[in-house]
Design goal:
By secondary structure, the protein is of the alpha/beta class. It has 3 domains: 75 residues, Beta Barrel (OB fold (Dihydrolipoamide Acetyltransferase, E2P)); 143 residues, NADH-ubiquinone oxidoreductase 51kDa subunit (Rossmann fold); 91 residues, no CATH class. 32% of the residues lie in helices and 21% in strands. The protein has 16 helices and 17 strands. The strands form 4 sheets. It has a 6-stranded mixed β-sheet with strand order 1-14-13-17-15-16, with helices on one face. The radius of gyration is 22 Å and the shape is globular. The chain starts with 6 loop residues before the first helix and ends with a helix. Bound molecules: iron/sulfur cluster (2 copies). One iron/sulfur cluster binds next to helix 11. The site of one iron/sulfur cluster has 16 residues, from helix 14 and helix 15.
Amino acid sequence: MDGLWPTFMRRSRSPVSDGRTTVPAAACAHMPVPEKVVLPLQDLPEDSCEVLVTTGEHVLAGQQIGTMGIRPHYLAVHAPFSGTVTAVEQRIHEAGGERHVLAVEIAAAPEQKSAPAVPLSQFSGDRLMFLRDMGVPLDFDALVTARSLMVNCTEFEPTISTRAAIIMNHAEAFAGGLRHLMAATGHTEITLLVHAAERELGARLKAIADRVRGVRLTAVARAWPDTLQPLMSFRQRLSGQAAPAVIVGPGQVFAVYEALELGQPYIRQLVSIAGSAVPAPQTVWLHAGTPLVEILRRAGVSFPFAGRVALGGPMMGGPRYSLEAGIGKKVRGLFAAAGFILPDERKSRFYQSCACIRCGKCVEVCPAGITPIAVVEQVKFHDLNRSLECGLLSCLECGLCAYVCPSQLPLVEIIKLGKLQTRGRESLLIFNIFKTLSS
Ligand code: SF4
Ligand code: SF4
């Protein structure tokens, strides 16, 4: 956290105003093969899963090593490179906290070999089942039940540009993915959403829409956040009624093309790495399951300097507690904010005790309009009802309050702990998020 920087410096380094965090759409290098990957087979400890490998086994790139969930509601997980399985055990989840899930660790072999591609023509199930087998992370239930299909080509986070990178650099594959997605889901139309201000991207998408039957282009005045799809799916499960639309991203469309056209499993993902601790913001292809710490080191982040790391961007990215976890399949952004961390012996007793100085900076920056320190104090006093009244469930976990706090208080971590105590109150959470988005 760089809350101790003088205000004028902090403002000039803040994520929104930092011009360095603009990531060029064309920068799509491949990060070299990491020493190891950690591939989780569960999202929550109680989720079912299947392990297909044992410790010591040699695996090839693209070989299936397990599934998240069990048939018919499952998603296959594949080895992103060839190597040796070094552990099948409980590991901390990328969301951290108390959450430990079953994961497979694979160490890279010096020589890389790929498992043979499995074409769709040799598969006995339907296309959606094939996509599950290829490990493409989609909301399969919503894809078949929702009334319409949309591709969100807007970018809500200022530091993420994976969508533009896919469309500008892989337009043919993207167009092919749209055709395959319609064929797989039975939808006859797809709507592409583009931000009205993105003229170059809009022109590229218009050319695609003119060529591919059933594809429409709609310009929107504001970017749409990624949280809309989980919210719609949740509402669908609560109400039992079909969601008005299912929203996918260009990265998923590209993965659909690679799976159905080329028989390639989902073993790589495009990620934007940015933030004031990143010397050169970049958008790179990563091996699935690469530990976060290795990604950041290779991006040039030095750790006493990095104060806060979020999966996503500065606005909606959730705080991370462990950098040893492997990157999840749906992650498109890593945000590392610069920190100014004094060694303990050089901190005054005041800062060692991390007292709130009532400066109000956390209130000033909070996009949810709550008073973060008020929520945190109620959580610390174990007064759940009072913390709910103070807006505990309105918190978007963007981390901006912790980012600016001069006392370096772990505000988001405490808020997250408070939220864990509210399990079973998800409908209240959805209500609060909708309220925040519509205000
Ligand atoms: S993390 Fe929550 S409380 Fe803190 S600024 Fe973001 S929305 Fe507000
Ligand atoms: S929690 Fe931090 S930012 Fe908020 S009022 Fe206290 S010292 Fe200031």
